[in-house]
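Per reviewer request, we include the raw input and output of the structure prediction for the construct analysed in the revised manuscript.
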Amino acid sequence: MQKMIFVNLPVTHLKKSMAFYTSLGFTNNPVFSDETAACMVWSEAIYVMLLTHAKWRTFTTRAIPQPTSSEVMLAVSCENREAVDAMNTAAAENGGVSDINPIQDLGFMYAREFTDPDGHVWEAVWMDPSAVPPGNQPD
């Protein structure tokens, strides 16, 4: 089996969250979706499971953090700088908050961070590995 990642996120309004992620370019997999959860697909290896708070509580008794807190930043790669900008614009136009941190433009890498409607932090990033400066490349 191919290695995959399933990011599980508690959401306040499932349909609103589905519309938000669709606007970013995710697609819904209805096989793993119902009125309490939605499987949103970014690639063959990356899936985001949007879970209502009631559904989330069936997996853990830990508290759902306030939207102003941040434990992780989820980064997704984009094809080019324009796709990074488009994702950030779509986030802002669909209930998220764009550019929550300064834009990172290192020439060979370009990244912008935003939140979804529930405050989960995402980073859209583009990188040209062939342009990484000497000394910054892995051995």
